[in-house]
Design a protein that fits this description.
single chain; alpha/beta; seven-stranded mixed beta sheet
């Protein structure tokens, strides 16, 4: 296991985040907290087999690809996290119990067991904070320039969690401010054969989420967290279908 005195990320490893369409003119800012599945070499794969590292416990399957396709369609800036949520969850407040988990669904994560405070803080310093600092800087830039900003947090969810099936095709998540979520729920209700979750399969709170409460609510921005079922966006055709649908619906929702 790494020592806090040593940098967690090696010089040849990915940056904590990627930005695509950086000069996009759209008011939409699309972020993907769990887009990546990369594990720092120094963490020795967290002691997990490859099959576990490919599962939904490690990343939001398809979400990063949908975010990029949607960004291209809307001419929107996209900011994606590159590291696995098992290293540190970039949609949880650092220090909370769910920030760095020892058990995901039914899978123990050996490399997360017994971490010191310094080790946990290092993961936040090198992965969590650079990602959120980049989101904040983009929103600050827009505010200073008098440009509009609408925050879209793109996620995906597993069709079955702990043996419980999730029937929804997509969910709209919100906390205190349902404005954009409600409009999208109404618009999606007119789409054929789509079952929409209203704060399903998750509900949002300050204790269980970070991105929307901090970057959306505190700035009083229009915002929504979109959750798409992973079996629907596991391949490029599905990703493109859902990106095209949201490229059509999102502008209608902010009118």
């Amino acid at each position: 296991m790494n020592s806090p005195a040593t940098s967690l990320l090696a010089a040849d490893e990915p940056h904590p985040f990627s930005v695509t369409n950086e000069g996009g003119s759209s008011p939409f800012l699309i972020v993907a907290d769990h887009a990546g599945k990369y594990l720092p070499q120094r963490l020795q794969m967290l002691g997990l087999a490859e099959a576990e590292r490919e599962r939904h416990i490690a990343w939001d399957i398809g979400a990063g690809a949908v975010a990029c396709m949607l960004g291209d369609a809307l001419d929107a800036v996209v900011i994606r996290q590159n590291y696995s949520r098992l290293v540190i969850d970039c949609n949880r407040t650092p220090g909370y119990a769910t920030s760095i988990i020892e058990m995901s669904e039914f899978t123990p994560v050996p490399g997360n067991i017994g971490l010191s405070k310094d080790q946990m803080e290092q993961r936040a310093r090198e992965i969590f904070h650079p990602y959120h600092d980049r989101i904040a800087s983009e929103l600050d830039r827009r505010q200073q320039a008098g440009q509009a900003a609408v925050l879209i947090a793109m996620h995906s969810f597993t069709p079955v969690f702990k043996a419980e099936a999730r029937p929804w095709h997509v969910g709209m998540l919100y906390n205190r401010d349902p404005r954009l979520a409600r409009k999208l729920i109404a618009l999606l209700g007119h789409e054929p054969e789509i079952l929409v979750g209203d704060n399903e399969p998750y509900s949002m709170s300050d204790a269980t989420d970070y991105t929307v409460p901090v970057h959306g609510e505190r700035r009083n921005l229009l915002h929504v967290e979109i959750e798409i079922r992973q079996d629907l966006i596991a391949d490029e055709a599905g990703q493109r279908k859902w990106a095209q649908m949201f490229a059509r619906l999102l502008p209608q929702a902010v009118l």
